[in-house]
Amino acid sequence: QVLLVESGGALVQPGGSLRLSCTASGSMKGIYAMGWYRQAPGKQRELVANIGVTGVGPNYVDSVKGRFTISRDVEKNSLYLQMDKLRPEDTAVYYCKADSQYGMTYWGQGTQVTVSS
């Protein structure tokens, strides 16, 4: 079982920056990829960025390329999302996800990011 806890969401003005963190606890054995997803009101959850634990990737959705950076700290079992040049359309609940080679998928509870003046 893996528990994921996100933090770092906030209200920020357009053009601003935020850094989201996701801390994982429990058995990370078999986890081969982690990523950030987001869900805006009335929209489907979408992939923002992901990265393989063995260094594969990262991959970004086109709308965030050049503005967001995903990274991980293996020793701290943590995943990060540095978000720069934020836009109102980035407003969403951001979720951390971990995929296991045993077929399990784990989600965090989400953290709200609101970009507004």
Fold and architecture overview:
The protein is mainly beta. Strands 2, 4, 5, 6, 9, 10 and 11 form a seven-stranded mixed β-sheet that branches. Strands 1-3-8-7 form a four-stranded antiparallel β-sheet, with no helix packed on it. A hairpin with a 6-residue loop joins strand 5 and strand 6. The model has no long low-confidence stretch (mean pLDDT 94).
Features:
four-stranded antiparallel sheet, mainly beta, 117 residues
- Secondary-structure element series: EEEEEEEEEEE
The radius of gyration over CA amounts to 14 Å
- Tally of DSSP helical segments: 0
> CA-to-CA gap between the ends?
40 Å
Unreliable residue runs: none
Q: How many strands, what sense, and barrel or not for the largest sheet?
A: 7 strands, mixed
Overview in brief:
With 117 residues, this protein is mainly β. The chain has no helices and eleven strands.
Give me the secondary-structure topology:
Layout: E1 2-7, E2 11-12, E3 18-26, E4 31-39, E5 46-52, E6 59-60, E7 68-73, E8 78-83, E9 92-100, E10 105-107, E11 111-115
Parallel strand pairs: 2-11
Antiparallel strand pairs: 1-3, 3-8, 4-5, 4-9, 5-6, 7-8, 9-10, 9-11
